[in-house]
C-alpha cells in the first residue's frame, strides 16, 4: 500500500489504439483528481506505448514509466505490469474470470461449492444466478447431446466466442450453421449458453440524432463493485458494492453491447 501514498506514483490507464470509452474513463480520472485534491497524476497509454515506456525495477519490482533502459516486447507489456507491485484494475485474474470459458468452468459440478465449502446456501444462491453453460472441446456423450440439441433447437441457445463488448455471438439459424461447419478447434473456442428470457417492458430508447422510439424492451442490470486485496497472502482490505448500470435494448435485438449500438444506457425506476 506504500505506493498509494507515494507522491510520485501515477495512475496508468491502458487504452486501445482506437478508444471508444474515453468519456467513461475521463470521469474516473476526474473523480480521482477530486478525492485526491489534485494530487493524483493520470497517464493514458496504449499497449504499444507501454512497450516503449514501461520497465520493471529489478530490485523493488516497481513499475516504471520512462525510468529504465530495459524495454519489453509488446506482448510482454501486460506481463511487465502484472509482475510489478502496482495495483492493477483489473488484475489478470479478474480479466480471466470474466472470460466466457472461465464462466463456463465455474458452472461445472462442484466448482462453486469448492469456494464455499461450509456454506451450502451461499453456493446455492450463487448458482441460482447462473444460466446453463457448456464447453464444446470434448467429444463425450454430454457434449454431443447438447450440440445436437442446439442444432435442432437453436432458439434455446447462444453460441459465444471469447470476446467482449456485445459482438461476435451467434443466434438462431447461425448456431445451426456454425455447429455443422466448425472444425474441432473452432468449436472448442466457443461455448454454448442457455438463452435467457428476461422481463419485457415498454420503454423509450433515445439515441443521438434520432427521435425517441417506444419499443418492447429488455434490460440487463450490472452492479459495480470494488475489491482491494493482497495477492501474496490473499488478504482483502476492501470489498464493497457501489452503484449500478442498466442497459436496455429492443426485445428482438440479439446483441447487447452499448458500444456496438445494440443497447442504450438506462435508469431503473426505484420503488
Automatic annotation (TrEMBL):
<dbReference type="Pfam" id="PF03199">
    <property type="entry name" value="GSH_synthase"/>
</dbReference>
<keyword id="KW-0317">Glutathione biosynthesis</keyword>
<keyword id="KW-0479">Metal-binding</keyword>
<feature type="domain" description="Glutathione synthase substrate-binding">
    <location>
        <begin position="74"/>
        <end position="97"/>
    </location>
</feature>
<keyword id="KW-0460">Magnesium</keyword>
<dbReference type="GO" id="GO:0046872">
    <property type="term" value="F:metal ion binding"/>
</dbReference>
<keyword id="KW-0067">ATP-binding</keyword>
<dbReference type="InterPro" id="IPR037013">
    <property type="entry name" value="GSH-S_sub-bd_sf"/>
</dbReference>
<comment type="pathway">
    <text>Sulfur metabolism; glutathione biosynthesis; glutathione from L-cysteine and L-glutamate: step 2/2.</text>
</comment>
<dbReference type="InterPro" id="IPR004887">
    <property type="entry name" value="GSH_synth_subst-bd"/>
</dbReference>
<dbReference type="InterPro" id="IPR014042">
    <property type="entry name" value="Glutathione_synthase_a-hlx"/>
</dbReference>
<comment type="similarity">
    <text>Belongs to the eukaryotic GSH synthase family.</text>
</comment>
<keyword id="KW-0436">Ligase</keyword>
<dbReference type="GO" id="GO:0043295">
    <property type="term" value="F:glutathione binding"/>
</dbReference>
<protein>
    <recommendedName>
        <fullName>Glutathione synthetase</fullName>
        <ecNumber>6.3.2.3</ecNumber>
    </recommendedName>
</protein>
<dbReference type="GO" id="GO:0004363">
    <property type="term" value="F:glutathione synthase activity"/>
</dbReference>
<dbReference type="InterPro" id="IPR014709">
    <property type="entry name" value="Glutathione_synthase_C_euk"/>
</dbReference>
<keyword id="KW-0547">Nucleotide-binding</keyword>
<dbReference type="GO" id="GO:0005829">
    <property type="term" value="C:cytosol"/>
</dbReference>
<dbReference type="InterPro" id="IPR005615">
    <property type="entry name" value="Glutathione_synthase"/>
</dbReference>
<dbReference type="GO" id="GO:0005524">
    <property type="term" value="F:ATP binding"/>
</dbReference>
<dbReference type="InterPro" id="IPR016185">
    <property type="entry name" value="PreATP-grasp_dom_sf"/>
</dbReference>
<dbReference type="Pfam" id="PF03917">
    <property type="entry name" value="GSH_synth_ATP"/>
</dbReference>
Amino acid at each position: 500500500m506504500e505506493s498509494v501514498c507515494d507522491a510520485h506514483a501515477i495512475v496508468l490507464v491502458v487504452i486501445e489504439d482506437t478508444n471508444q470509452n474515453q468519456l467513461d474513463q475521463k470521469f474516473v480520472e476526474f473523480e480521482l483528481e477530486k478525492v485526491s485534491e489534485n494530487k493524483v497524476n493520470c497517464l493514458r497509454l496504449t499497449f504499444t506505448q507501454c512497450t516503449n515506456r514501461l520497465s520493471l525495477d529489478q530490485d523493488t519490482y516497481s513499475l516504471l514509466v520512462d525510468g529504465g533502459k530495459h524495454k519489453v516486447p509488446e506482448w510482454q507489456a501486460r506481463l511487465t505490469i502484472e509482475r510489478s507491485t502496482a495495483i492493477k484494475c483489473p488484475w489478470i485474474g479478474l480479466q480471466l474470470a470474466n472470460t466466457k470459458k472461465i464462466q463456463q468452468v465455474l458452472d461445472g459440478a462442484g466448482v462453486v461449492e469448492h469456494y464455499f465449502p461450509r456454506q451450502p446456501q451461499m453456493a446455492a444462491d450463487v448458482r441460482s444466478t447462473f444460466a446453463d453453460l457448456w464447453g464444446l472441446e470434448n467429444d463425450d456423450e454430454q457434449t454431443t447431446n447438447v450440440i445436437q440439441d442446439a442444432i435442432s433447437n437453436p432458439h434455446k441457445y447462444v453460441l459465444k466466442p471469447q470476446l467482449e463488448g456485445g459482438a461476435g455471438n451467434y443466434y438462431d439459424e447461425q448456431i445451426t450453421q456454425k455447429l455443422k461447419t466448425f472444425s474441432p478447434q473452432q468449436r472448442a473456442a466457443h461455448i454454448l449458453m442457455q438463452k435467457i428470457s428476461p422481463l419485457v417492458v415498454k420503454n423509450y430508447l433515445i439515441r443521438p440524432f434520432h427521435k425517441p422510439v417506444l419499443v418492447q424492451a429488455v434490460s440487463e442490470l450490472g452492479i459495480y463493485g470494488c475489491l482491494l486485496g493482497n495477492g501474496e497472502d490473499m488478504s482483502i482490505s476492501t470489498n464493497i458494492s457501489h452503484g449500478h448500470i442498466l442497459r436496455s435494448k429492443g426485445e428482438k435485438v440479439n446483441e447487447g453491447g452499448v458500444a456496438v449500438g445494440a443497447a442504450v444506457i438506462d435508469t431503473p425506476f426505484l420503488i
